[in-house]
Design brief:
Blueprint lengths: L9 E5 L3 H11 L4 E5 L3 H9 L1 E5 L5 E4 L2 E3 L10 E4 L6 H8 L6 E4 L8 H7 L4 E5 L2 E5 L4 E5 L11 E4 L6 H12 L5 E2 L3 H20 L5 H5 L2 H20 L10 H4 L2 H12 L2 H12 L2 H18 L4 H16 L3 H4 L2
Parallel strand pairs: 1-2, 1-6, 2-5, 3-10, 6-7, 7-8, 11-12
Antiparallel strand pairs: 3-4, 8-11, 9-10
Helix pairs in contact: 6-8, 6-11, 6-12, 6-13, 8-10, 8-13
Length: about 325
């Protein structure tokens, strides 16, 4: 793969969530061959109509036509295989992934538990991870979306990294490709610490939003709830430290900035269209994932015997929102 031109690269993407479709479209626009492995109505729609992105700020529309298959076949024909499905679905893909010899497997999944079981089967030499700062929602016309700006980095930055903590040539290539997509991508040295730190921030921000029925503009006007969100993040960081996990440097704004300054920064950002698309609409569109993420981190809290009153307060907001959305029955099957 080293030295390959972009036009010679081949990507396979498992999953058709909003973020994976944005990534597929942006990669395709660079001349990269993209294949999506999925079945069902959404897969058929993408196969027939392509992926259309509508920038919510500018109105600019772009459409990419990608190959869609329900059986990926030999995964070693691809340079990168991106796994962008719920953590619970990964096990169903392992029979395909375990046969890979040369392909780079990139996990684009939000999880607090990590991939210890997957590492035993695949080996960290074949595993990478990434996260992109983008969000939106689907309509009949396409995906209305926005990519994250500078302020959004404190919530959901775009990163890529290795599970071996090394900045290898392949991760440099992935970072270059993400930047070519328009993302301000950075290297994350410790994959496991990054995933756990991100889980703390994601669940705190999402649950604070759910306390406001998923409305970021309402949250921006509630300084007490913003304070609770900040304290929830700090409580989560304290839990991680009990396990010897240091929060990733990219997220240290949450502890380094004085509370008054951080509250103001959060309030200003939450009152923007960028926050609406990359946070509020993103989290509301993946309720099951956010529920599972909270359950995962609750296991860390319980085992550490930590007192986390702010996390508990925001957790109630999540469960009340789920009740209103009548989603608990689906989530707890």
């Amino acid at each position: 793969m080293s030295g390959k031109n972009k036009s010679a690269l081949k990507f396979l993407i498992y999953g058709t969530n909003v973020e994976s479709q944005i990534l597929a479209c942006k990669l395709s626009e660079q001349g990269i061959a993209v294949t999506i492995c999925e079945s069902g109505k959404k897969a058929k729609w993408i196969s027939d109509c392509g992926i259309t992105l509508i920038n919510a700020a500018s109105g600019w529309t772009e459409t990419a036509y990608v190959e869609v298959v329900d059986d990926a076949g030999d995964l070693d024909q691809y340079d990168f295989v991106v796994v962008a499905v719920e953590r619970l679905r990964v096990d169903s893909l392992l029979s395909d992934l375990v046969s890979v010899q040369n392909t780079n497997i990139v996990f684009m999944i939000n999880t607090a538990m990590g991939f210890y079981d997957v590492e035993k089967l695949l080996g960290i030499d074949r595993m990478m991870f990434c996260s992109i700062s983008a969000g939106g929602y689907e309509t009949d016309e396409g995906i209305n979306y926005l990519m994250g700006n500078y302020a959004q980095k404190m919530f959901r930055p775009t990163v890529a990294g290795e599970f071996s903590d090394k900045k290898t040539e392949r991760v440099k290539m992935l970072l270059e490709l993400l930047r070519g997509c328009g993302f301000d991508a950075a290297f994350a040295r410790n994959a496991d610490a990054w995933l756990k730190t991100h889980a703390v921030i994601s669940s705190s921000a999402a649950n604070a939003l759910f306390c406001c029925n998923g409305d970021n503009y309402e949250l921006a006007a509630k300084p007490d709830l913003i304070s609770c969100m900040i304290d929830s993040v700090r409580e989560g960081f304290a839990v991680l430290k009990k396990y010897g996990i240091q929060p990733e440097p990219a997220f240290m704004t949450w502890t380094k900035l004085p509370r008054a300054v951080l509250k103001k920064v959060c309030s200003v950002f939450l009152n923007t269209q960028c926050a609406e698309y990359t946070l509020a609409r993103h989290y509301s569109g993946c309720l099951r994932e956010m529920y599972l993420l909270q359950c995962e981190f609750d296991a860390f809290i319980d085992y550490s015997k930590s007192s986390c009153p702010n996390i508990s307060r925001l957790r109630k907001g999540l469960f009340e929102y789920l009740q209103e959305e009548k989603s608990v029955r689906v989530l707890t099957r």
